[in-house]
Amino acid sequence: MKKILVFLAALAIGLSANAQQALWGGPSVESPVINPDGTVTFRYQAPKAVKVEVTGDFLPTQKMEVEFGGNKMTYDAPGVRELKEGPMGVWEYTTDFPVAPDMYTYTFRVDGLTVIDANNVFVNRDIASITSVLLVPQEGARSDLYAIHDVPHGTVSKVWYHSDKQGINRRLTVYTPAGYETSKAKYPVLYVLHGIGGDEDAWVTQGRATQILDNLIARGEAKPMIVVFTNGNISQEAAPLENSTGYTRPTMQLPQTMEGSFETAFPEIVKFIDGRYRTIAKKQSRAVCGLSMGGFHTLYLSLNYPQLFNYSGMFSAAIGVSDPSVSPIYQDFDAKLAKYFAGKPALLWIGCGVTDFLYQANKDFMKKLDENGFPYTYMETDGGHIWKNWRIYLSEFVPLLFK
Amino acid sequence: MKKILVFLAALAIGLSANAQQALWGGPSVESPVINPDGTVTFRYQAPKAVKVEVTGDFLPTQKMEVEFGGNKMTYDAPGVRELKEGPMGVWEYTTDFPVAPDMYTYTFRVDGLTVIDANNVFVNRDIASITSVLLVPQEGARSDLYAIHDVPHGTVSKVWYHSDKQGINRRLTVYTPAGYETSKAKYPVLYVLHGIGGDEDAWVTQGRATQILDNLIARGEAKPMIVVFTNGNISQEAAPLENSTGYTRPTMQLPQTMEGSFETAFPEIVKFIDGRYRTIAKKQSRAVCGLSMGGFHTLYLSLNYPQLFNYSGMFSAAIGVSDPSVSPIYQDFDAKLAKYFAGKPALLWIGCGVTDFLYQANKDFMKKLDENGFPYTYMETDGGHIWKNWRIYLSEFVPLLFK
Fold first, then answer.
1. Hey, which of A39, A107, B312, B398 has its CA 20 to 30 A from B17?
2. What global pTM score does this model have?
3. Above 0.85 for ipTM, yes or no?
4. Is the Cβ of B342 closer than 8 Å to some Cβ of chain A?
């Protein structure tokens, strides 16, 4: 044992000073800490700082108003709290409320600079933002679905397919449920689409989708299914750092989003998945859902391929932003809508938060559905255009599939 | 198009102020920038800072000496450079040398605080350290292997198996080469082991192993093979945040490392892989390699299971730290060594850097091999106990396998 300790010491010394502190001496500061009373303590060591703040979606939001193009828009800005300086330059803030079980992201602001928590290795990239992760699980709470439990786990694979339409190799994230590899059964397939700026990683990291699937299936609340997370930026091979194009910076201004190309090319993904995996390759066993831009894509995939999908889920969908002049995909909306419902889809599911800037657009869409007597299921939640809601919507949508 | 722009604007406004800056206005500061002359510019916006520095393995190291337990040890500390403040509080440093093509990690120090590059979304976790990534590829350079090219890509999967020995589910990273899924062929298997504190993610993130494999196979320089990245912390289910135990902080002081349990239980991983994948399930088609603790594990796996592995790669291996009193795995070293070589393994490959604190231990081991006339291949590199070397060793080892 002594030899190993010397080895460890030598290793720690041999590593960089940064690493050394965290590895050998243990982290000098513990943060975040979920306290027994449910409050959470955040700490950051910054001896020379004048002001240290924490901001994140665990804090109550504050209403903000901005003007854009002559229109006033209100939105929920994340709350901000000041930390107080203690011994050794360690700043600290403890919430004055128990933090509700959920998954959150947060950052510190040190004299105005946004930084992640230096003592929390759980970081998340969402589009171009790197944030620290706070996961507060609790038995019986909804967020328990987001935690990793000692249940059979599915396999999560990064899989490449060739897009004939785009002439490039493109990456998918594919979830195969526990038991897939040892079974000979065929499985239904759910396609899950991200929002603008996102990629094939988004639902797995920020969305906790594979944990939600593992847990719902283990509880018997969802059918075992294959889940495919596509990259909806059709001009892009894969997420940043997974591209052959090198340092492509995440951006919301990628070419060829929401102009029909993704929807036009989508059948080649379905064909690839049906060829590669043991799927039940028919409408009855195929579902699609997505958030924001992915909800927009979901709508137009459903309308343009009524023979493909039996279940559709629109989460905070970007409704009302399509431009019929850019693609046939967006033309003849009313006729396609009628044809879609004539095909008697098992489920059109809509979820939206009351403060979402797309709330009214979703209400308008549902009014149209109502006027035509087209059936759908609607879930309304608090809050706006946020991951918290999209995790809820996925958790609600998945149990309804393939029954 | 106008509608989409309004949607984007509303989305940007709806997002947090942090995200908004990076997403909508584009990053206010570009960093890092690889300049046409090969120098690299780093920038960090910190208007209130007094001193901003950058440190990382792209800088020449500086010799440092420390005393530990009465022994003086020298090591290569990463270099540090000061940035200069320019307009808008944007600090900047440009290297006065072309940065050699390679993959690097770096951090800034703002008035002593270690922070990642706020304008670089490419972050890496290595054990408990979060750092920013600088990848400098160049055609014809070795680092070209670390870049993603437009070649057929293998599938990278996170796969769980049940450890009967430990009574827990455990996670592996498994690489199946391009063509595996559409072929009926059987493939050889390489097991790749991480260092202390690492996990089944380490070789894929910091080690660029799947890029190295994709590129070597595409060039015809390596045989298509299945590669299994194990988690060598036998008491651990999986990497942090992938555990059912919740917020387990990465540490080098995990129980049950280097005390025989991992090596004892290893055959159950081989059995799982041979059962799950189309492998050539025999010694001739099985290899193992690892870095540091993983090199230690490689040595004892090779010695204790001479019938399992035909190729073994020890990268900066932690030689000389085993304790025979803790496990039979570490007993009868000389006899096992003789038996191992009597089995005529195809390759024992050793790599070490001249400034590695384990250099002498590796030299001593090779002296023993020489004295016994046991054959091996040795590669000596500059530098010490660093990922740069481990990527080189993997790139050199893989082409030698299964010929």
1. A39
2. 0.93
3. yes
4. no
